[in-house]
Design goal:
- This protein is mainly α.
- The chain has one domain.
- Helices cover about 50% and strands about 5% of the residues.
- It contains 9 helices and 2 strands.
- It has helices at about 1-25, 30-35, 40-50, 75-95, 105-115, 135-145, 155-165, 185-200, 220-225, and strands at about 205-210, 210-215.
- Helix 6 (about 135-145) runs antiparallel to helix 7.
- The longest helix is centred in the N-terminal third of the chain and has 26 residues, at about 1-25.
- The radius of gyration is 19 Å and the shape is globular.
- The model is unreliable at about 220-225 (pLDDT under 50).
- It binds fe (ii) ion.
- Fe (ii) ion binds near residues 85 and 119.
Length: about 230
Amino acid sequence: MWYSININACIIFIDLYLVWEFEMKSEVFNTELNYIKDEQIRESARYLLEELPDYFYVMPASTSGKYHPHFSLGEGGLVRHTKAAVRIAVELFRDNIFNTFEYGDRTQDLIIMALLLHDGFKQGKTESGSTKIEHPLLAAEFVFSNITKLPMKQMDTLQVRRLIASHMGPWDKDKSGNKILPIPRRDDEIFVHLCDYMASRNFLNINFVDNEIVDSVDRGQARTLKK
Ligand SMILES: [Fe+2]
């Protein structure tokens, strides 16, 4: 009897631990997932975020420290870069001039999903300590390989694959100069590249508190700065 109570307590503890572990990975992107209006697209994005390699959630955006702004360096830097790219997209969606996609809101949701996943395999399928130039293809194929498991429409999954594959823009060659990545050509592809490109500019300074973007200094601090 005593043993069974103890075993049950252990099982519950392990279950709680697993649930906690499971929730931890994608929860950091709850703000960004909630920008996605379509539930099936949002849940597909959440599912794939859980399946990304663990290193994605802790590595800096740039392993050398040369090519990304300060906020995306250090532990969790790639997560903050990803959040910045999504936020740039959301801000641009608010401007009708940029908001002219063929499929309207659905394409906006797919763009957010693509940005959430675009660097998910930055160091390859397992942690390697350096950026893999082919990482857009790895992430794109990862999305495609899950096509039958996702609640979203298959044609939408193919669109996300396309958006991720070309996100590097003009940086489409390996070290030997061989062209290995597609160039963004369609409006939605260029838009994804634009958001990733802007999020990685060195002059950019985005404030984060606990991995959440802070819109501006609070009023008290602003008054202090004016003096
Ligand atoms: Fe990126």
